[in-house]
């Protein structure tokens, strides 16, 4: 799938492209599945500008079918997965070998394609950006989404109490079944008032927000003094500019806008994060819920479902 101009889902074009042979440090990967993520929408619409034309998709899993000069970390036949490098909406692709991690036999390709970006993002959020500990109470927006369900389960396994916002009663039940102790249906409930009630006015050490414009400022009211606001997505649109003095007024708050790239920049960080993710999934503490599957050529339909908030859990494109 290629994008020649930014715009709606209709700009995703199903085309034949020559993959070529892997260069030094590269691998040719035959993909079994690719993940669908909201960042793909940001790339497609131009919110996060890319050089045109481009192949979207930042998450996938498959089998190595060729290696370039100097590649020693993987070999043809290895099962591998990645989260980060663009170009995932393809049957085969070239990718830098140092961006791949070997996939344990216990984890299926579909599961890997659904969890590498989202699972590694969850690891970044609750293990690195703010280390969630037993006894913490946290707020997770979009708790029934791909990252949200993983964060809820993982935080619950760590002994935290999880408050999560969702749009429907069905998504509330899904979140509850995955470790969210207090689902809040934001279409009829005030999540700020619910946080105040649940914490008896103590508020929270951290809020994880992938929604952006619609939730950002009110999320600041959920934080206790010196709490941390983690803004990691914009599904409702980018956050409006605001004076930094608001952070002081609301309790000397911290604000961060993390990206996974900066938390897996070194090979050691990438391997350590992936190993912890694989362990928590293999143990059963975190279950990756692939709720929707689309054929790769139907990626535009998948984008419409994602933007229409008609998805829950993870969505993959099958090759």
UniProtKB/TrEMBL annotation:
Domain of life: Bacteria
CDD domains hit by this protein: QOR2 (cd05286)
Pfam families recorded: ADH_N (PF08240), ADH_zinc_N (PF00107)
Keywords from the UniProt entry: NADP, Oxidoreductase
Domain Enoyl reductase (ER): 7-317
Protein name: Quinone oxidoreductase
């Amino acid at each position: 799938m290629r994008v020649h101009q930014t715009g709606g889902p209709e700009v995703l074009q199903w085309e034949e492209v020559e993959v070529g042979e892997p260069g030094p440090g590269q691998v040719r990967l035959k993909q079994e599945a690719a993940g669908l993520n909201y960042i793909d929408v940001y790339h497609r619409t131009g919110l996060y500008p890319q050089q045109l034309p481009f192949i979207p998709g930042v998450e996938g899993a498959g089998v190595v079918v060729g290696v370039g000069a100097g590649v020693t970390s993987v070999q043809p036949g290895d099962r591998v997965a990645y989260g980060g490098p663009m170009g995932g909406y393809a049957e085969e692709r070239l990718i830098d070998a140092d961006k791949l991690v070997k996939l344990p036999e216990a984890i299926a390709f579909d599961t890997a394609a659904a969890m590498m970006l989202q699972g590694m993002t969850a690891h970044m959020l609750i293990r690195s950006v703010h280390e969630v500990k037993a006894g913490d109470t946290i707020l997770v927006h979009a708790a029934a989404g791909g990252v949200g369900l993983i964060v809820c389960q993982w935080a619950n396994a760590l002994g935290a109490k999880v408050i999560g916002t969702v749009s429907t009663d069905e998504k509330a039940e899904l979140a509850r079944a995955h470790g969210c102790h207090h689902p809040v249906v934001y279409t009829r409930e005030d999540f700020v008032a619910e946080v105040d009630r649940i914490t008896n006015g103590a508020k929270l050490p951290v809020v994880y927000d992938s929604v952006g414009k619609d939730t950002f400022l009110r999320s600041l009211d959920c934080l206790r003094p010196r709490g941390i606001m983690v803004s990691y997505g914009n599904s409702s649109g980018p956050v409006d500019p605001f004076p930094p003095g608001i952070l002081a007024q609301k309790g000397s708050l911290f604000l961060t806008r993390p990206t996974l790239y900066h938390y897996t920049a070194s090979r050691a960080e990438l391997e350590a994060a992936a190993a912890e993710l694989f362990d928590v999934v293999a143990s059963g503490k975190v279950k990756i819920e692939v709720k929707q599957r689309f054929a790769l050529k139907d990626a535009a339909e998948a984008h419409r479902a994602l933007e229409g908030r008609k998805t829950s859990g993870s969505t993959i494109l099958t090759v």
